[in-house]
Amino acid sequence: MAQPALPTLKKLGHDDYGVAIICPLEVEVSAVRYMLNEEHARLPNKEGDSNRYICGRMSGHNVVIGFLPEGSQGVGAAATVATDMKRTFPQATLRLLVGIGGGVPSVQNDVRLGDVVVSMPSGVHGGVVQYDLGKETPTGFERKGFLEPPPTSWRTCVVDMKSAHRTKPNQISTFLEDMIKKYPGLDEYRRPTTEKDVLFLPTNKHISGETTCQKCDHSQVVERSPRARDTPKIFYGLIASGSRVEKNAEKRDQIAQDAGGALCFEMEAAGLMNDFRCIVIRGISDYADSHKNDDWLAYGAAMAAGCAKELLTYMDPVISSNSTGRNVHWTITRVTNPYFTGRADIVEEITEVVQNALQDDTGVDQCRIVVTGMGGQGKSEICLHVADRVRSSYWGVFWVDVDKVALAESGFRAIGSRLNLPGPSIDDVRQSLANVKHPWLLILDNADDKDVGYQQYFPTGCTGVIVLTSRNSKCHQSATRKSITLDGLLPHNASNLFLQAARIPRSQHEACKQDAELVATSLLKGHPLALIQAGAYVSQGHCRIAAYSSVFHRQRKRLLTFRPEQAHSRYGDVYATFEASADVLQSSSHKEAASDALQLLPVLAMLASTPLPLSLFEVAWEGAQHISREATAEDNNVGYLVTWHVSQLLPLLEADGEAWDPFRLVEAVRLLEAYSLVVVNDAGDSMSVSMHALTHAWAKDRQEPKLQRQSWLRTGCVIAVTTVEWLSARQSFWLERQTQLRPHLQALVSVGTSVMFDNEVQLMIVRILLRCGWILDLVRSDTELFTLMQQLFIWLNLDGVTATEKWLPLYDLYGQNLIDFYGQNLSDNRRSQAAVTLLEQVVTIRKQTLAEVHPDRLASQHALAVAYQDNGQVEKAITLLEQIVKIRKQKFAEDHPDQLASQHALAVAYRNNGQVEKAMTLLEQIVKIREQTLAEDHPDRLASQHSLARAYQANQQVEKAMTLQEQVVRIREQTLREDHPDRLGSEHNLATMFWDLGQPSVAIQIMQKVVRIQQRVLSEQHPDRKASEEWLRDMEDETRMCIDGRQDDSDWESYSSDDT
């Protein structure tokens, strides 16, 4: 680069520079350099910084220009320059990336050579889109990640500049003229002639080997009307950033469209936006097509430099931190954790707010920032890094641990000592800081106690900056500038932290990537302290990374209480961080709420960590009310719940009053939320509560075996009493919320026999598990139900073959489960026959002990009829179902759920017996009633519509069938998991309907999906899987035969004319 002719150069300090500009190419660096109003003397770099910088003044700002080494380009090189630049010039917080780019002309945006594009948010993107970050999928390229938008200060300046340009032209061309006038040797930066701005059609490729476009087809160009002036236009929007130079116009347009309407292409911005948040300014030097040349290179660079210079005129200068009295007081004694990683964006975000506070002289309010999150998420580490970043800008940086009053007093005394206050109290220090004219930063760490008003530690007035960390989410109310809630680390950062803590050499990271991601994301959910513990466990030779997952499942408590020396946490291990919250909760002044919260916690631990609808507790309360009112004398009947079950419930579910009052439950949940032990989600009228996987593990593991059994009993009773009056309303509650509730029920019944079974209250436990079984059967958790029944029979020493009167409800449920269970070791006939044999015994005993109209007897007969159908004994099924329908018709109204259920089963039996007309007539009647009485997505309504569609199909009314079946499939896809038998059954039938209507490719596509899922969840011998596989084979074979045997294309076209 040519040196400017400056006789003497002013020399400032590193902290005097408030603007950082990065330019990738020399032609761009020179354009910015020679637009400086003055150039300053060079400064020495910080240790380890190999960059070279040009310093000067531009538009009232002290500016430092960083650039890439010769031959280096792309996101990695730019990121390296930016990292070192931030260390050497820590006060240069106004950042720009300035240079050339490839324009994307379109009808909407008439981008031309020499125009300028400024990165601004648009749609879901922040201003820069990394278009080549992602992965190839069967449906195409899936882009990943999100790049931060320019800081608010830049976006505000852009609004100001755009507004000014409505009434006056931009100054870019004037700045260029001034530069060339001052440095005549820079003539190459002049604007080329308009004739050299040729936009070829995307399909018009450059002739290979030619250095110019003279021989290119000039008949294939885009005709554009000439502009009135040669001054550049400024466009604001998205910039596409990637790792390669784009030279294909068709790809350019497609990528730009996929990226949300990008205006230009470049190669460096993606490496900067998250850790070096800046505004990107690109002068258009080509059209990112095969005709790319250097004719407009220098001019494009000059236009970008001129735009940057003009934009700086709208930005207030950063106050120099080199003024008297900065970096005088520092009371932080903690050192940063060498393993701290993955929070750079948050550190940057807070640092920006803290630095901007230096320029805020409005005097409106004090700058306060609040950071919350569960223990071990890195709140304190973030503050340490922020303090280190801004240290040279502030007169005083003070740290006070406010976990306990004594610690707070000690911390404020240390500040008073630094300020030479005699025998200072907390109020003395607060008052002193309130009157200081210098900028100060006060960090209040561990403000976790819900009962403490931490405002008592805030200095009064509007000066200074306070950063407060807490587990209590309600502390966000104290924030005036920024409020941040920490979650787990992103997968990439989590894996890196784990590998780093495990001391795995970076060269081996790729080989360990898959195992590390399993540990970091699936097991530990990105929890920083847990990741450091896990890494230390590996580094000390206790296990290999590949084995950590299996060790974790066997020895979870040991691993999560392992205390590595390098953790640098005040708690030592993950479980200790959560236990600290429980200790604070234990001593809370909210006695009833705290007691309720501590009793609710182990109940939640017995369920899944996923969101749990709090409406479950309301339904449990209603069930408890019913039991208390209708206490039965049939205490020995295993099918009944009794007052003992009510007595085991949480105290907050005590059956007082005539209406459910959620006050105590909500207070308990909110208290747990305040200490970051649960997460509460308010969605309209529905509230749910979930737990982080590690908090959930701790809540379970902290209980001794005896306490775990008590917690399981209490939780089991909560679930069981929701089934009292097991009629439509109660079943609807579980059916409508089965996606959310199913994991909790599965967690409850899979805790292990040592927790579930206690011979002291055997009958009571069987009653709980029977009710759990009813729900599992209802939501079609067939495998879990089969396992539960096997465990029950072993525990009760029952053979599962010969029914006994005492345990009759168990055999009844087991018989129904045998029909549905998809076992790998049970052939079709054996499964069906076993169910028939068992249910015939149940019905025989019911007939001997119950009246003909008793609901339990009718329910058992209904189950036997279904078993007959499954076993191919359709005539027997019809006879029995007609009898049940007749009895229920005399007892129930036509819209009673039990009556409709038996009629539905009868209609299905008619269809299976070839009596399609009778089936259709009965099903149309059922569907009509259910459509009038049930919601669109009610499972019973969908089941009858599904059966009616099949009856229509059997009657050759395929189009009518498909209309109804498509509606069923659409709703079930929204409400049921993908492997739910009902959803798979409706999708299977829809595929056959498409086939019947001559749409083979759609039919095959749907059936392939069904088979793929069934092969994952069903045994090879399961009849549903075998039927789908056979259908798919026949479809594919017939399609192949049609293709191979067609005479000409018209044959195939006629065959697939309706295909979509």
Automatic annotation (TrEMBL):
Residue ranges of coiled coil: none
Region (Disordered): 1025-1060
Xref: Pfam families: TPR_10, TPR_12
Comp. bias regions, Acidic residues: 1050-1060
One MF term in the entry's GO annotations: ADP binding
InterPro entries to which the protein is assigned, alphabetical: NLR-like, Nucleoside_phosphorylase_sf, P-loop_NTPase, TPR-like_helical_dom_sf
Any Gene Ontology biological process: nucleoside metabolic process
Extent of Basic and acidic residues compositional bias: 1025-1049
Record-linked Gene3D superfamilies: Nucleoside phosphorylase domain (3.40.50.1580), P-loop containing nucleotide triphosphate hydrolases (3.40.50.300), Tetratricopeptide repeat domain (1.25.40.10)
Highest taxon listed in the record's lineage: Eukaryota
Name the UniProt record assigns to this protein: Nucleoside phosphorylase domain-containing protein
High-level lineage: Eukaryota, Fungi, Dikarya, Ascomycota, Pezizomycotina
